[in-house]
Design goal:
Layout (H helix, E strand, L loop, with lengths): L2 E5 L4 E6 L5 E4 L2 H15 L1 H12 L5 H28 L23 H25 L6 H10 L1 H12 L4 H5 L7 H19 L18 H20 L9 H30 L6 H16 L7 H24 L8 H19 L22 H31 L6 H6 L1 H6 L19 E4 L2 E4 L2 E4 H7 L2 H11 L9 H5 L4 H7 L2 H4 E3 L3
Antiparallel strand pairs: 1-2, 2-3, 4-5, 4-7, 5-6
Helix pairs in contact: 1-4, 1-9, 2-3, 2-4, 2-9, 3-4, 3-5, 3-6, 4-8, 5-14, 6-8, 6-14, 8-13, 8-14, 9-10, 9-11, 10-11, 10-12, 11-12, 11-13, 12-13, 13-14
Length: about 525
């Protein structure tokens, strides 16, 4: 990614600096407008992630997953302002190949104020995206309080790899690593963290039962809308990484737009083809979404330095590796509810490697520092450093994430209780959720019978006192929604049931089911 720095000696307060260190031109008003506009569009990707993830999880958890996306922005944003930007791009005394130092609690004035603030906003949108990737993999079983703490410290996972690749003296940048818009820094870092988090939390209840099919999407239409919002945001993500449109940068932005679109088209076609083959002429919504997103992740690192026909290949392979990655994760019985590991992790690896294969030197902006990919006669050097970048980012993200999760687990606990997981996080964490129906049936999201017996709720083999529900809900809402809307007849007033509540299960078996059993679906 190109960068900015002060250039007072040249007479310009701030100048665009190409990756070879040469000044490409002064920052113009148009450049600043381009950077800020791209940042604002990238910010809307949070809505896309929220809709996509809410559509993929069970209905009883969709509010919770949207709230987690809000937390990503609020707490992740404040920590990036406090120290994340400084560790990534600080240039004060003490900065080195591993970390930046300076620009903590971002503030600026004078000639450099505009460029520092615009760069901060742009990078902030990248940092919150990296955290949001992880939220989907932790869905439906993570305590909300624990996730808040995680979002605060997950900034550490992103900011150091950003310095290694994009900082002025980052060690990977010095070796010649190229990641134009973040296949590795943003997506691979997020995907590796997602894998560790999903494995650490263990699967949702019943996820890999032998007699059970995979969990169905709660709202496929909403997930598709979320995908379209991400698609739109991705154009700003990739094109905005030119950091301006003055000089020759507008040409790079235009090229990035074309290659990004063609790559996503290829991914979509692969998704349809594979779903028809695997599902026997059925068109899988999940395959389509993940294929397009996987293709977008794959092209992100090379969007400005490959030709359109090369982006077609990169996108097609990106779709295949994203679907294959998710299948491998599922085979290993790691529960990733939204497929974040395959889409962002494995496709992110391919995106970095694709640079080493397809990159062509850019004579004007010198994005690759004059190096070419394998098929353009550049040899194996660029491919080798791209592999090294992948290993470094995976190792860092995995180790730091597992440390953060371990500490949080010991402090407040990560996993929701069995009861809360069955009832749904919307109900237990936010006092909203799915309400009872009048018939006993298999819930499409959790496949467990939910029955009211006496003063208890029976969910599968789990018994929950009604008093626990009353503790979690306001009395007015509980009475109105549970007993009026669903017309569930309580038998708590039956004296014989109250007197033998300690032997509730025996009492139910001896009574007539028509008198003592009332259905409750949560």
């Amino acid at each position: 990614m190109p960068r900015f720095e002060s250039n007072m000696a040249s007479g310009n307060s701030t100048s665009y600096v190409a990756d070879d260190g040469g000044v490409s031109g002064p920052i113009t008003w148009d450049d600043a407008t381009w950077i800020l506009t791209s940042s604002f569009i990238i910010f809307t990707m949070q809505s896309g992630f929220g809709l996509l993830e809410a559509g993929a999880v069970a209905g009883k958890n969709e509010v919770n997953i949207m709230m987690k996306n809000v937390v990503d922005v609020v707490f992740g944003g404040i920590t990036y302002w406090m120290f994340g930007y400084g560790f990534s791009f600080g240039e004060e005394k003490g900065s080195n190949a591993f970390t930046g130092v300076g620009s903590f609690f971002v503030d600026a004035d004078g000639d450099d104020m505009g460029i520092i603030y615009s760069t901060f906003v742009f990078q902030l949108s990248f940092a919150t995206t990296a955290t949001t990737v992880v939220s989907g993999a932790m869905a439906e079983r993570t305590k909300f309080s624990a996730y808040i703490i995680f979002s605060v410290f997950n900034t550490v996972v992103y900011c150091f790899p950003a310095h290694w690749v994009w900082g002025n003296n980052g060690f990977l940048r010095e070796l010649g690593v190229v990641d134009f818009a973040g296949s590795g820094v943003v997506h691979l870092v997020g995907g590796a963290s997602a894998l560790v988090a999903a494995a650490y939390l263990k699967p949702r209840m019943g996820r890999f039962d032998k007699d059970r099919k995979s969990f169905a999407m709660n709202n496929p239409a909403g997930a598709i809308v979320g995908m379209f919002m991400l698609w739109w945001g991705w154009l700003a993500f990739n094109c905005g990484s030119t950091f301006g449109i003055s000089g020759g940068k507008w040409k790079l932005a235009a090229k990035a737009a074309v290659t990004t679109l063609i790559s996503s088209f290829a991914g979509g076609m692969v998704g349809i083809l594979l779903s028809v083959i695997i599902y026997k002429k059925k068109y899988s919504v999940e395959y389509m979404i993940n294929s397009i997103l996987g293709a977008l992740v794959a092209i992100t690192a090379s969007c400005a330095i490959v030709r359109p026909w090369e982006s077609l290949i990169i996108g097609a392979i990106g779709a295949v590796v994203s679907l294959g990655g998710n299948k491998l994760v599922e085979t290993c019985k790691v529960d990733d509810p939204v497929g974040a590991v395959g889409v962002h992790g494995t496709a992110g690896i391919w995106g970095l490697l694709a640079v080493g294969i397809f990159a062509a030197p850019d004579p004007q902006e010198q994005i690759t520092q004059g190096r070419a990919g394998l098929i353009h006669g550049g040899g194996f050097y660029l491919l080798g450093v791209q592999c090294l970048c992948s290993v470094c980012e995976i190792a860092w993200s995995g180790l730091v994430t597992i440390f953060i999760l371990f500490v949080i687990d010991r402090l407040v606990g990560l996993r929701m209780s069995r009861e809360d997981e069955m009832l749904g996080a919307d109900l237990t964490e936010h006092e909203v959720g799915s309400w009872p129906t009048e018939s006993v049936h298999k819930d499409k999201c959790d496949n467990t019978n939910t029955v009211r017996r006496g003063s208890h709720i029976m969910i599968g083999d789990l018994t929950i006192p009604v008093s626990k529900l009353r503790d979690n809900l306001s009395r007015d809402n509980f009475k109105r929604d549970t007993f009026r809307k669903s017309k569930v007849a309580t038998i708590d007033n039956d004296k014989s049931v109250r007197q033998n509540e300690s032997n509730m299960e025996t009492e139910v078996d001896n009574n007539n089911d028509n008198q003592n059993e009332v259905s409750l679906h949560l």
